[in-house]
Design a protein that fits this description.
2 copies of one chain form a homodimer. Chain A is an alpha+beta fold. The first copy, chain A, has 2 domains: 257 residues, 3-Layer(aba) Sandwich (Rossmann fold), CATH 3.40.50; 97 residues, Immunoglobulin-like (Sandwich), CATH 2.60.40. In chain A, 24% of the residues lie in helices and 27% in strands. Chain A is built from 8 helices and 19 strands. An 8-stranded mixed β-sheet of chain A has the order 12-13-15-14-16-17-18-19, with helices on both faces. In chain A, strands 4, 5, 8, 9, 10 and 11 form a 6-stranded antiparallel β-sheet that branches. Chain A starts with a helix and ends in a 6-residue tail after the last helix. About 2% of the residues of chain A have low confidence. Chains A and B meet through strand 8, strand 9, strand 11, strand 12 and strand 13 of A and strand 8, strand 9, strand 11, strand 12 and strand 13 of B.
Chain lengths: 380, 380
């Protein structure tokens, strides 16, 4: 199965991010640390310096061993005379990273950070300031709303949660209807990941304020990716989620929000495993979506177009993106090199865009930037 | 200052909840523990038994000392041969409780629980099943939406966050307008506390499905209560929050949601310190609100009515509530016994309701029940 080999590649990408091993030699640490923007209100730690090092601090007077576990590396903290442990990581890529503390063998969230869902748990996250962080900053511009909705799902016999971004102006002009982007998280994440660490709403607010994108609605729901164990990803079956999305969520959104409820005004995108879901679902449903975004989640090959001729006919834009550090590894799945694939598909007559996020890996900064690049191309 | 003595009483109430000291003798523990509903997806611990005991478990092979810290008491956990620590608390009141783990002197969130904002931090919470939990359960009924909004605030020079519950039907009948309840959290909490641990949206969904309440909008924002230190609560000044609420948030909500924008269709309620805020703001603004709810947050005395004659004239309902365990302590602030006060105010001609939550203290189960009792009385 192609999908299975693809999943193994995704798994390798995840492992390279969540990481193993590595040690760092002695290094001079630049003493310009500031509290991370992702901290809890009033908390001084963790801090980040201009090199992108993360410094953790926690009081644990009786502990023998405290570590900061970030980017797949465990950094030892050092105890002072008051029982307070402090230490810092090697420089991290700019953008958002999941992390945790290890206290005498217990892996726990850092009480200083806010908590994010990713790596299959609610736990600590830290944002390393990025040169381009302005595009997802909270600014004095009109803000859209992020609705938490609970939509009925017969197929799963429950009410399922989704977040729906409506752009500024949605509430003040009741005659206007909007296109919709369905936007999926990756493995280990959930429907909160795009609105929280992804800042999907702020990215849109800022783009709209600058007139760079058409206003549209974004719908983010749980892709049911975590219900199987990490080691059994190749057993993932798209059918349950495809049913929820196509048969339940889209009709609910079209009934409860002022949408332009047709193919020309419907997009789907996803990151990592959400990209794989987007790929499978949009290839199989070319009557439903006209714009497709795969963020670090595979590509479409000329063979795919042969197998799914309506995809080429109906899809107005295929957007494929990766973090530059992801592309350093040769081979991105059974469909081959994503850039070459995307070029070949373009030659075959599709409107495509290939974007590379500079200096980032399989992490959220690549995906924030991907959304920022993707949104202005939609519904034109 | 009356407000200052009142705040000291609130502080005592909080201390009695967050607690100090206490130990428990040997007890037989009923072995019918089940994972808490507040756990992270897939996490087996913490668990709760039918007595309301909370059992925590964490792997910490190198630790010397691990404790469960709940209800103001620290319970020692015991290590097994695999380095896994397990132990349980004394029976807790039914409903929601903040807690944490202590690992060799470090106070950290339990990686098994979901995280809630309360006690001035994002941290662990656990729900002890209550006999009446059905009223805030997620059911197969039409669900309203909870909007995260970012509203401009000139007085604080930022975009401030609020959550807005719109009832089922809000999106499908664009001609209908709704009354609004402004609902405040307590000290140490924030705007997420009512929609998360308070289940304000599910309480409303269920009441509306049963035809027990008129559908209305609920607005929950940060009451700016935590910006001062716990020990300096008596320095709290209502002015900044009152400005945000009256001059900025209410106009924003009335512009962006289909509200009935008048006094008769506007209510304010709050819990604990949010009750105190409600009390001060509604006494000072009787032209703005017609329904007032004080949940474990003081009462209105006949003297207040003399000082604020328009309050009596304009307010159609004064609702005062407490957990029964709170009332065991004599004296509930400088305005005296809340039940006697409320009776006196009723005699003076006001429409009042006094509610006591059975078997609960200064915690969220008292306030979930208070909202459940209060909502059906509004906008009649």
């Amino acid at each position: 199965m192609k999908n299975q080999s693809y999943l193994l590649v995704l798994l390798l990408a995840l492992i390279s991010t969540w990481g193993f091993g590595q040690t760092e030699g002695l290094a001079t640490v630049k003493e310009d640390f500031k509290p991370a923007v992702t901290n809890q209100p009033g908390k001084e730690y963790p801090q980040v310096n201009s090199e992108g090092r993360v410094r953790a601090r926690i009081k644990a007077p009786e502990a023998k061993n405290v570590q900061l576990d970030i980017g797949g590396v465990k950094y030892d903290l050092v105890k002072d005379e008051n029982g307070v442990w402090t230490g810092e990581s090697a420089p991290q890529d700019e953008g958002f990273h999941y992390y945790q503390l290890n206290i005498d063998g217990a892996s726990v969230p850092d009480p200083g950070s806010r908590y994010y869902y990713g790596a299959v748990r609610w736990g600590s996250g830290v944002d390393v300031p990025a040169r381009d962080q302005d595009f997802y900053a909270l600014k004095n511009v009109p803000h859209g709303h992020v609705h938490q909705i609970l939509f009925p799902s017969e197929s799963t016999n429950t009410s399922r949660r989704a977040y729906v971004y409506t752009p500024p102006g949605y509430d003040t002009d009741p005659s206007k209807k909007y296109p919709v982007l369905y936007l999926q998280h990756g493995f280990g994440e959930n429907e909160t990941s795009w609105p929280n660490q992804g800042h999907a709403n702020l990215i849109m607010d800022n783009l709209i304020a600058q007139g760079k994108t058409k206003p549209f609605i974004i719908v983010m729901t749980y892709g049911m990716t975590n219900d199987i164990e990490f080691g059994k990803l190749n057993e993932f079956d798209i059918t349950p989620f495809q049913t929820v999305l196509i048969d339940e969520l889209i009709p609910y959104v079209d009934m409860h929000f002022r949408t332009l409820a047709n193919r020309d005004n419907r997009a789907m995108a996803g990151l990592s495993m959400g990209g794989m879901e987007t790929r499978i679902i949009t290839l199989a449903n070319p009557d439903v979506f006209s714009y497709v975004g795969l963020f670090s989640g595979g590509s479409i090959s000329p063979d795919d177009l042969k197998e799914h001729p309506d995809f080429k006919k109906n899809v107005k834009l295929l957007f494929v993106s990766y973090g530059s550090k992801e592309l350093e590894n040769p081979g991105r799945g059974p469909w081959g090199d994503p850039r070459k694939n995307t070029e070949a598909v373009k030659k075959a007559g599709m409107n495509t865009r290939f974007y590379v996020s500079p200096g980032t890996a399989h992490e959220f900064q690549s995906w924030r930037r991907s959304l920022y690049q993707f949104a202005p191309l939609l519904f034109r």
